[in-house]
Design goal:
Helix content is about 30%, strand content about 25%. The strands form three sheets. It has a nine-stranded mixed β-sheet, with helices on both faces. Strands 13-12-14-15-16 form a five-stranded parallel β-sheet. A two-stranded antiparallel ribbon has the order 2-3.
Length: about 325
């Protein structure tokens, strides 16, 4: 079977969910091989093998922690040049997309970003994407070189396929250009108990209709009941009601959860572009003509301050 390279996204060896999704997708195309950069590869190997990685290329060099992006570019380029994979899959986050663009340029290959699905085709991997602010769904495939593809989180449910991976240490040559930008310091990001916005299976978002920072407690209560991440519209974050890091939209974070609940959000095109690929969309808005209802799978016309507490009560009742 053809080899498919998957760049591992991890924190101190703990593999993040998008990588497990990529390994699941890679098995549709061929035989997955994981490319792991950094320390604690032993911690990650078991998880990678559990989701089908037949081989783990380990790049453990000081440059991985000292340099920005370029270690992954150098590693993927050199490994791909030696092994000739049928495709390279990366997570569709800022680092992943920058790495993918540089790798595609060096390999003189085609690049596809923000795929929401990947399947095998007669001429190589076929992707599905949202285009023009999520107005159209597009299928595409690379026509030149090794396909380099970034895939959005939640494009596939991780499915175990246990194997015992072969671990291969890889010595990467880092060129002078790789040292153009260096990491001077690092500080851990503060994280709460809720899942990451981009990786969450469920996202509950509030908009202008929440009418104040103090009222976001209603949104947070629903999110905590569902084990969800909290999002916000641009209007809400611009008003200072919720942090900008939680903005969902074309100029914020793009999400694709299994369930997206939009409360008090009108559904402007800017917001729709950031959440339209969600599998199921539920809208709560007191304006029956709000554009969000054109997109929603289920809609409730009503005051969110009456509807959401009833939703929480019903969820808790069914769980008890």
């Amino acid at each position: 079977m053809a080899e498919i390279l998957v760049l591992v996204d991890h924190t101190e060896g703990v593999v993040r969910k998008p990588t497990l999704e990529l390994l699941t997708l890679a098995r549709r195309l061929g035989e997955p091989s994981a490319v792991f950069l950094g320390r604690n590869a032993d911690t990650a190997t078991e998880a990678l093998g559990r989701y089908g990685a037949h081989k783990v290329y380990v790049v453990d060099a000081p440059e991985v922690d000292e340099l920005l992006v370029t270690p992954a570019v150098d590693a993927l380029t050199q490994i791909a040049g030696s092994t000739g994979p049928a495709a390279i899959l990366l997570p569709s986050n800022p680092d992943g997309k920058e790495t993918a663009a540089r790798v595609a340029l060096r390999l003189e290959s085609g690049l596809i970003t923000d795929a929401v699905d990947v399947t095998a085709g007669e001429d190589g991997p076929v992707t599905e994407q949202s285009a023009f602010a999520a107005t159209y769904q597009v299928t595409a495939h690379v026509t030149r070189g090794i396909p380099v593809i970034t895939v959005k989180p939640n494009a596939a449910a991780p499915e175990p396929a246990p194997v015992t991976p072969e671990v291969e240490k890889w010595d990467v040559t880092f060129g002078p250009a790789s040292a153009a930008a260096k990491v001077l310091s690092r500080s851990p990001r503060e994280r709460g108990d809720r899942p990451e916005l981009t990786e969450a299976d469920v996202v509950v978002s509030g908009g202008r209709g929440v009418n104040g920072a103090e009222n976001f407690a209603v949104i947070e209560r629903v999110a905590d009941t569902l084990g969800a991440a909290v999002g916000a519209s641009r209007a809400a974050v611009d008003a200072g009601w919720y942090p900008h890091s939680h903005q969902v939209g074309q100029t914020g974070t793009q999400v694709s959860p299994q369930l997206y609940l939009a409360a008090g959000i009108s559904g402007a095109i800017q917001h729709r572009a950031g959440m339209q690929t969600s599998k199921t969309i539920v809208a709560v808005n007191k304006d029956q003509d709000a554009p969000i209802f054109e997109l929603a799978d289920y809609g409730v016309v009503g005051d969110l301050f009456q509807v959401l507490p009833q939703l929480v009560e019903e969820i808790e009742r069914r769980r008890s």
